[in-house]
Amino acid sequence: MLFERRAYTLRPGNAERFWELQRKWNTPAQIPGLLGRNIGYFLVDAGPAEQIIHLYRFDSYDDWKTRLFGVYTAERADYFTAARKLLLAQENMFLNLAPVPEINPIWGDGRDWLPGKPFYEGVEDDGSLTVVESSLDFLPGGLPIYWDSYKQYARSVGQRASAHLIGCFYTLVGPQHRVLHYRWYRTAAEAQEHQVAQQRDEHSRRFTDAYQPYVVRSCVALTRPSPVPWMKSLFAPIDWSQ
Question: Which domains does the chain have, with CATH numbers?
Fold first, then answer.
């Protein structure tokens, strides 16, 4: 498996125009190959301003090339012209699953969810769903210590280690020694409550103390799933005929 994180920074005030282009040009019937591997699009509410994050799960690098470049056709030139006018920057990174099975409840260790049927069934999105992206950058050599500490923490708290987790990843291509977590909550308030509970938990504090000396940067972004139904496939089914 190969995961990709893409981030588009929009010109201010263009988010709704961006979603309009997705509804018109990037439907499941138009780009089934790429959407068949799209975990979701997320609009940043608190964090880098005017940014939209996409997450994908591919079989391999060759699978990524085939699916991505398959959408670059002459018939879609108008879409790319219109979309690029909305953007200030684009970036991407390739990710791998964390080597701790307990913190990847959707993929790895025999698990492999793909878009189509939502992983989180019965979750209604009235605009309140919140996905938190948190990242840690480590000193060279810090990652093995982090993973060892994480394994001990997971053994200590059991299923609590994966509470709210979509997944945990580290960079293969992009800023090195970076770990990214994605967690989902029904509301931003629930996300804050979970963070406070973690700060008060003795096992969580011991875990943090073990890896903290090796951290050089920590960032958190609060996002919400795309308003386009087929671009939030963790929470909504995909109608491939659309």
Answer: 2-231 (3.30.70.100)
- Cα 178 to Cα 17, 137, 140: the distances in Å are 32, 4, 10
Q: Which pLDDT value is given to residue 54?
A: 96
Q: What is the per-residue pLDDT for 207?
A: 87
First to last CA, the chain: 27
Using CA atoms, how far apart are residues 106 and 90, in angstroms rounded to an integer?
27
How far apart are the C-alpha atoms of 172 and 175, rounded to whole Å? Answer: 8
- DSSP codes joined into one string, 139-171: -TTHHHHHHHHHHHHHHHHGGGGGTTEEEEEEE
Contacts of 122 (CB under 8 A, 6+ apart): none
> Which residue carries 């009235």 as its tokens?
126
> Considering the entire predicted model, what is its pTM?
0.91
CA angle 86, 176, 222 (to 5 degrees): 50
Secondary structure (3-state) at 78: helix
In percent, how much of the chain has pLDDT > 90? 74
Per-residue pLDDT tens for 184-234? 999 999 999 988 988 888 888 998 999 999 999 999 999 999 999 999 999
Phi-psi region of 50 (alpha: psi -120 to 50; beta: other; left: phi over 0): left
